[in-house]
Amino acid sequence: MHRHGFYRRFCKPTGAERFRVQRFLCVICGHTVSVLPGGRLTYRPLEVGRLQGSFDAQAGMSCGLDPPPGLVEAGCLQRAWNRLLTRVEVLKNAFGQLLPAELPTARQLWKALRRRVGSAEAMLRFLARSCKRSLLGDYACLRPAP
Description:
This protein has 146 residues and is α+β, with helices and mostly antiparallel strands. The chain has 2 domains: 1-35, no CATH class; 39-141, no CATH class. It contains 5 helices and 5 strands. It has a 3-stranded antiparallel beta sheet, with no helix packed on it. A two-stranded antiparallel ribbon has the order 4-5. It is flat. The chain starts with a strand and ends in a 15-residue tail after the last helix.
């Protein structure tokens, strides 16, 4: 792999700040790979820590984010939670025996994941390495090149 430039992504939902995402080129197959820094989500301008805090509040594990999210960030966080609601079965299957068998709701799933796996960043790392998935989607960027 060779360094192959970078692109900029929004740090926050408001689009006020950006950060660099390094790209690499595989000289054998010709594909490029982008490497997100730790604490970042694929395809979302949210920090993993803020997502975790919001999901903890949705699951009744905390009283909310500090500082509270603005209107745009609150919308992004709510869309992320709504996406998690659709992925309960997928995530239960991905984490397998790490979780209890009966977890019918996203709220119960999130609580069990936090107890068994720990942080949202640890969840993302496990899913990417073990299952080629992510918390909020099964993205093509996580699959190996053909």
